[in-house]
Amino acid sequence: METEIKEIEKGFFVEMGEVKSPVELERVRVKYLGRKGILDKLFSQLSRVEITQRPLLGKMLNELKERMAKEIKEKESALAAGRKTVGVDLTLPGIYFEIGRKHILTQTIEDILVIFENLGFVAVEGPEIENEYYNFTALNIPPEHPATEAFHTFYLELPRDSAFGRYLLRSQTSTVQVRVMEKIKPPLRIVSPGRVYRPDAVDASHSFMFHQIEGFAVDEKIRFSDLKGVLFSFAQRFFNKEIKMRFRPHFFPFTEPSVEADISCIICKGKGCRVCGRKGWLEILGAGMIHPWVFRSAGYPRYKYTGFAFGMGVERMTMLKYGIEDIRLFFENDLRFLRQF
Ligand code: PHE
Fold first, then answer.
1. How do residues 100-120 score in pLDDT, each as one tens digit?
2. What per-residue confidence (pLDDT) applies to 145?
3. Residue 20 backbone dihedrals phi, psi, to 5 degrees
4. Residues 263, 250 contacting (CB under 8 angstroms)
5. pLDDT band at 86, cuts 50/70/90?
């Protein structure tokens, strides 16, 4: 047993020489000094040793145990000191990895699309770089008409296409109507989100770039009441169940009749307050029954189909829903604002 003890001691010091971390140190400690460890086993073998040898071996074992414990302790403090000399400051705060999130406008677009998808609409996207044909002519807006004034902007310096006119950044998502109708026949129910551009000076409620969601449905017997039902049920889901809705006559070249739709003010519930300008109503979108000219642009047979269309501003919907007072907040990238959503 004596030689065995010496071998074990040698092995222990070899292993200790290789220890480089507290974890490794603990492993060696458990192996030799732990309960059911190597030394523990030797102690229990003592009872089987000849009685005269027991005191001597017992003493050897005890001394070995002490040497091991001392060595472990020293190693422990050496490791701790080593940590300090490489300059790790354990009191420093950890590195915080920020998790990104969707911009509030993206969230709103997704919320709106889900509501329409549940009503049977399919989402598609159209190009932001358009031409005069889809942006104006196909929608019954002659390019020289004064109604195009608010839309004339951001023309691209590309050679004009003889059939489609000049290239420009689209001023409305209504361009998608004819683009989709050219490709698919009714019945169709489409929603289309995207950026649009206008020659507006930037202020609290205007931006030269903003987002719209266009929606339209075409079939053989679509009626104005379908438009009302779809928009009312959308508004109830997007804002809340208690809102009321009203339609006012309006004009758009590509719908007839045309309307603007209002919801009862979500702040004062229709009583009149600062947000709704004491009117009790908030305008949320433009809409109407699709003009026969648009169907003609699409190449649909005359008088066969009817349909409705609507277009809403995403920034406006977001501002109304969350009580945001300045459109510029969406585009300034100030995380203190964006983190709230
Ligand atoms: N395109 C119109 C706008 O920009 C909104 C609209 C869409 C109106 C569809 C009627 C039908 O204001």
1. 999 999 999 999 999 999 999
2. 81
3. -125, -5
4. no
5. low
Q: How far is CA 106 from CA 195, 317, 331, 340, in A?
A: 12, 12, 12, 14
Ligand 1 within 6 A of 172 CB?
A: yes
Which residues are CB-neighbours of 189 under 8 A, at least 6 positions away?
119, 120, 121, 122, 216, 217
Please indicate whether residue 174, judged by its CB atom, sits closer than 6 Å to ligand 1. yes
Residue range 210-222: average pLDDT? 97
| Whole-number Å distance between alpha carbons of 62 and 67 | 9
- The mean pLDDT value for 169-185 works out to 97
8 A C-beta contact, residue 287 and residue 258: yes
Query: Residue 194: left (phi > 0), alpha (psi -120 to 50), or beta?
Result: left
Distance (angstroms) between ligand 1 centre and the Cα of 158 equals 27
Cβ of 194 less than 6 Å from ligand 1: no
Here the tokens at position 91 are 């009191």
pTM comes to 0.72
Pocket flag, ligand 1, residue 264 (CB < 6 Å): no
Mean pLDDT score across all residues of the chain: 92
Torsion of CA 254, 260, 263, 265, to 10 degrees: 140
Furthest-apart CA atoms within the chain: distance in Å: 121
Residue 83 confidence class, pLDDT cut points 50, 70, 90: low
Q: In this predicted structure, what is the pLDDT of residue 93? A: 87
DSSP H helices, the chain, are: 2-18, 22-33, 38-45, 54-85, 104-118, 132-135, 175-183, 224-238, 292-298, 314-322, 335-338
